[in-house]
Design a protein that fits this description.
alpha+beta, Nuclear Transport Factor 2, Chain: A, about 25% strand, about 200 residues, 6 strands, 4 helices, six-stranded mixed beta sheet
Length: about 200
């Protein structure tokens, strides 16, 4: 990983630790996937192409469920949450694929491509969480979380609050994780609560 990417990771982790990034995926990945910057070559269009700002939720990420959640994806998400709720951050980190995409409130889409980075994004989630509602939207699982205290974390005033996330699970691992607005189509999620899986 380049020095620039390390700087982005460190800054994003610091933001999440301060509670600015909000719950649901506190920051801590690595870098924004900007694609080829060669003059005359347009950037590739991918699922994580930002809408207008690097901090915007990508346009292709759904904000509401359109059907039932995939049971296999839900199991992975619940197992990840169970590990995080126990304070087993290293185990929780291993539910994320390498590479994977991660975006919390106040961060760009981060590319997580090392063991250190996937541990960092889980450490940035200072709340634990319970999935209280799940639904499906294409390949994504839309989750509503209830935030709770967890060993090693500090959920503070976020305890008992809810948060929403869009999570893409494939081959038993979380491949993409996005914090959603508190209301579908609404403004970015409030950063008031500390970083707990306010996905």
């Amino acid at each position: 990983m380049s020095a620039g990417r390390r700087i982005v990771l460190a800054v994003c982790c610091a933001i999440a630790a301060a509670g600015v990034a909000g719950c649901g995926g506190g920051s801590g990945g690595s870098t924004v996937d900007t694609g080829d910057t060669t003059p005359g070559v347009p950037p590739p269009t991918t699922e994580t192409t930002p809408a207008t700002s690097p901090l915007d939720l990508p346009r292709t990420v759904p904000q509401r469920a359109t059907g039932p959640a995939d049971p296999a994806a839900t199991r992975v998400i619940r197992r990840w949450l169970a590990a995080l709720d126990r304070g087993d951050v290293r185990r929780a980190a291993h539910f994320f694929a390498l590479p994977s995409k991660f975006q919390n409130t106040g961060t760009p889409v981060l590319t997580v491509d090392s063991e250190t980075e996937r541990i960092a994004i889980n450490l940035s989630l200072t709340c634990g969480a319970r999935a209280i509602e799940t639904g499906g939207a294409g390949r994504y699982t839309i989750v509503t979380f209830r935030l709770i205290e967890r060993p090693g974390g500090d959920c503070g005033t976020g305890t008992g609050a809810t948060a929403r996330g869009a999570i893409l699970v494939a081959r038993g691992r979380i491949r993409e994780w996005y914090r959603l607005p508190d209301e579908p189509g609404g403004p970015p999620a409030s950063p008031a609560a500390p970083s707990g899986p306010e996905a």
